[in-house]
Fold:
Amino acid sequence: MVRIAELEVESRYLEAYLAILKKEAAASIRLEPGVVCIFPMAEQSEPTRIRLLEIYASREAYEAHLQSPHFQEYKTRTLPMVKSLRLVEMAALDVSTMPALFKKLR
Amino acid sequence: MVRIAELEVESRYLEAYLAILKKEAAASIRLEPGVVCIFPMAEQSEPTRIRLLEIYASREAYEAHLQSPHFQEYKTRTLPMVKSLRLVEMAALDVSTMPALFKKLR
Structure:
């Protein structure tokens, strides 16, 4: 399961948001074998525009992630900081060009 | 150097475009140590909308990539197939959550 999340963060909360996001992404990768990647990026021209490449090993792994304490904490704490959120469901076209990343995929 | 390229492909050329893209991405990863990742995705709801996560080890690696025969061939052959192209320059916020992917980064 591959997705790009596009967020816009309130500029006054940007630093706080990023700290919480980094903690959540790191915990997800460390604790959840089914979280293949959470890769946070900011637009160079507008750093309050955040994009995350999210890859989960399966739909079930994603559902489990939503229930995890670290995701629940992230969601609750960042809700007032996020102006908009768009989830763009993607399909990977060629996993062979990212073999290292996909080693956890099944 | 991290970027998301957003393309819209003419639907009648989609199959041809994807074949050329896959060939180019695979060649780049195989032949160019400075091309960390070219990860092609299509939107689930509109498969003619393509996004590529592109990561280069450095600006120099990117410039070299532009001069490579496989990129030149890709660009020439796909130019008539692409309706729009937007290049969104990104900054990675936390490489620690993608260690395998970033092993080629310097």
Q: What stands out?
A: The first helix of chain A runs from residue 14 to 31. Confidence is low (pLDDT under 50) at residues 99-106 of chain A. Chain A touches chain B through 35 residues (CB under 8 Å).
